[in-house]
Design a protein that fits this description.
The protein is of the alpha+beta class. The protein has one domain: Hypothetical protein apc22750. Chain B (Translation Initiation Factor IF3), CATH 3.30.110. About 30% of the residues lie in helices and about 45% in strands. Strands 1-5-6-2 form a four-stranded mixed sheet. Strands 3-4 form a two-stranded antiparallel ribbon. It is elongated, with a radius of gyration of 17 Å. This is UPF0145 protein ACFSC0_14510. It comes from Phenylobacterium terrae.
């Protein structure tokens, strides 16, 4: 599945628009506190465990979005937007949402 944050794929024409598709991943923010508890996880001012968890959540959201698009017969998702939100009591959860337009390309 081709994906792009731009409104099209260079060199390809959109033959049909199939609608908005999205994917979400929600992870518990408490895991981040556990990462920070082990100061050895922080190297050069960066929290490797935190970054890895965010990357995994983003990948899950994108895969769910692509799966929905494939179910509609799409060959690409364009105009993708990624959003990160804190949810729950004391912002104890983190949600990553990927949304875009499913299209069939020529």
């Amino acid at each position: 599945m081709l994906t792009s944050t731009t409104p099209g794929i260079p060199g390809r024409e959109v033959a049909e628009t199939l609608g908005v598709v999205s994917g979400e991943a929600i992870i518990g923010a408490h895991i981040f506190r556990d990462f920070f508890a082990g100061i050895t996880n922080i190297i050069g001012g960066r929290a490797g465990g935190y970054e890895k968890a965010l990357r995994q959540a983003r990948d899950i959201a994108l895969q769910e979005m692509c799966d929905e698009a494939a179910g509609r017969g799409a060959t690409a998702v364009i105009g993708i937007d990624l959003d990160y939100e804190s949810l729950g009591a004391d912002n104890g959860m983190l949600m990553v949402t990927a949304a875009g337009t499913a299209v069939r390309l020529r």
